[in-house]
Amino acid sequence: MNDQKTLAYINLYAVLGALENLCELAPEAGEILTNKKPISIGFEVKGGPSATLTFYQGKCRMEQGCRNCDVKLPFSSCEKFNGLIDGTVTPIPTKGFTHIGFLLKDFTKLTDLLNKYMRPSEEDMKDPDFYRINTELTLYVVGVAIAQVGNNDEIGKFSADHIPDGSIMIEIKNGPAVEIIAKNHRLLCLKKRPEKYRCSMVFDSYETANDLFNGKVNAIVCIGTGKVEMHGLNGMLDNVNRILDRVALYLG
After folding, report:
1. 14 and 44 share a domain?
2. Residue 209, class by beta-carbon neighbours within 10 Å (0-12 exposed, 13-18 middle, 19+ buried)?
3. Is residue 239 part of a domain?
């Protein structure tokens, strides 16, 4: 059973947080963002996460908290915020009505584009550039979701409690990587390649990563055939993989 609070953390930091990467990877995203001045949208979830997305010059940046946002969207519960993501809840801003046009037009177009990349059609996935962007975005979403599940989900926290301090790298060979930092049994994901790490999980190709993310192939089989390489401290990787199994339940 999914926990609504954990799902809210995933939806804000992993899913909406992927807008940062969408703007870097997809040229269409920059074309949507035509605002001449920075505009920031703050999300504040009662009993859950809060963050601000700032849009400027075709780019997006996420920061925790929403004290200095132009538009503020409060949610009375984690369930209400999750309803925003699945399209069943329409938020009412308490601040920034002068920017309502940006919220209803540009921001909505951008989230629609993210949804197109994250829930693609078979036809879209035939395009090599689309396939690459989909795979990279999924890596970033999964990486951040691992941290959120390890910090908030009860089963995930049990696994995180058994991860010693240090960094874990998850990498697509000849592609991007994320760093999962464990400290005092709390996890943090940085969307970059770590300089140092205690263990790593390396996918041999975009195809292997994409198939694994979408449940088309078995991870153990891929390890056996060498399509996924595991290096370093096995105990860290074992527990990260247990958390990854929980991530699949939330993102599925």
Report:
1. yes
2. buried
3. yes
